[in-house]
Amino acid sequence: MQLSREELLKAYRQMCLIRAFEDTVHEEFSAGNIPGFVHLYAGEEASGVGVCLHLTDKDCIASTHRGHGHCIAKGCDVGGMMKEIFGRADGLCGGKGGSMHIADLSKGMMGANGIVGGGPPLICGAALTAKTLKTGGVAIAFVGDGGSNQGTTAESLNLAKVWNLPAVFVFEDNGYAESTASSWSVAGDLVERGKAYGMPARRVDGFDFFEVWDAAREAIERARNGDGPSVLHVKLSRYYGHFEGDAMTYRAPGEIDAVKAQKDCIALFKRRVTEAGLLEPDQLAAIEDETAREVADALVDAKAAPPPGEAKLLTDVYVAY
User: Fold this and answer.
1) CATH of domain 5-253+261-305
2) What's phi and psi for 216, nearest 5 deg?
3) Where are the domains of the chain?
C-alpha cells in the first residue's frame, strides 16, 4: 500500500510543524518566557506522525510528558497549544494544564502525562469503550523506554490481550529514560515482551517515516478488525535534553550532531520523496515556510493573550455529572 501525494504532503507538513513548534518553545523557554517544565519531541517526529496519520477523531491516544508532537500529529490546534504552554486562558486546557498535561478530547488526545507509564491504563479504558460501543475506534499508548518498565504498562499489556482490546502500544525508545540509558535499564527485548503476552510485535526504525507508517498501518488494521492489541518498539533519538535545562552530560560528544547529520527523519523523508519524483522541492519549501509562519503567529497570539482569572481557580477540579 502506498501513500498518495496528498498524504505525503500532510505528513511533511505535520513533521515540519512539530519541529518548528518545538524549536520555538525551546527558544522561548531558554529566554525565561514559559512557566513550568517542558520536554521536547524534536527528532522524533516520524513516530508520532507515522502512527497518527492512520487515525481519526474517533480514535484515542495517550501521550507521555513529551507530548507536544503527539498533540500536533493528532490534529490539536497549534495556537491553543501555544497558549496552554504559556499559561493563557484560551489554551487547550484553559491555561491550567501546561505542557505536561495538555489535552484535547475532541481530537481524541487524552493528554500528556507527568506520570511515567500513566497512559497505558487510560488506553485500555478507551479501547474497551470502543469495543463495547462498536465504534470501530482504536486506542494508542505512546510510552517511553522508561515507561516500558512500569507495572502499569505490564498490567495494561496483559489486560489488553485478555480482553482482546483494539489497542496499540508504541514504545518510543530514544535511548534514555531521563539520563539512564535504555541499553542498561531495559532488560531483555521489548519486541519479545510483546510476544510473551501473545501479541504481534515489531521493531521499527523511528528515523524512517515510511517504516513507522507501514508498521502502524498493520497494527491499527488488526485492532480495527477485532484481532486485538499489538506492540511497536520504535527506535529513535531526541535532539534536546530530557527537559529544558538538561546539560546532557550523559550523552557522548558529537552524538546528537551525528544523528542530525545522518538520520534526521525530516531530511530523510525530503530526500526520499524528491529523489523518487513523488514531490517537488518547491512544494516542500513552501510547507517549511508555511509552518514556520503558523508557529510564529501562534507565539505572538500566545504572548498577547490573558492568563486565567481568579474566578477560574477552582474550575475544572471536579467532573460535573
Assistant:
1) 3.40.50.970
2) -65, -40
3) 5-253+261-305
